[in-house]
Amino acid sequence: MKNKVLLHICCGVCASHAIEALQSKGYLVSGYFYNPNIYPYKEYCLRKQAAQKIAKFYKIELLSSGYDLSRWKKNCAIFKDEKEGGRRCDACFQLRLGETYKKAKDNNLDYFTTTLTISPHKQSQTIFKIGKNLAEDNFLEIDFKKKDGFKKALEISKKLNLYRQNYCGCAYSLQDR
Asked: Would you place residue 1 in the very low, low, confident or very high pLDDT band (cuts 50, 70, 90)?
């Protein structure tokens, strides 16, 4: 039975409900913290620590890759003047989901998906399109914000005293805030 999934984790808050939702559907979940977009480095560390805390709480393996802001800039700087939710975000999603798909393949995991769909500020259909273009049969198209998913994530994170950020993560979203 194919049921091993790699969950791209943007932060601990978003991961909480997503892990619960996947586990309730019978998936064996591993997490992957890959977010070269997060700026500054201190913010990256806070979010990674929250992801580690949530992984420990749900007893899942958490994989990660190093901080590589220069790679993100190379992929997204051309869109620096775009508004939040525009082509810059699409390029960022493409980079992070592409790496998640590679990591899932490298670790013999059946599927991959992302916590990004839990945000009320992210267009799930855009994320689904990118994931399906990467691997039609291996991307789990789950909108984690459905059925009060975002609200549940906030409740869980409050209970666990998780760090909660107040901007998307990249330097441009920080500047816009």
From this structure: low
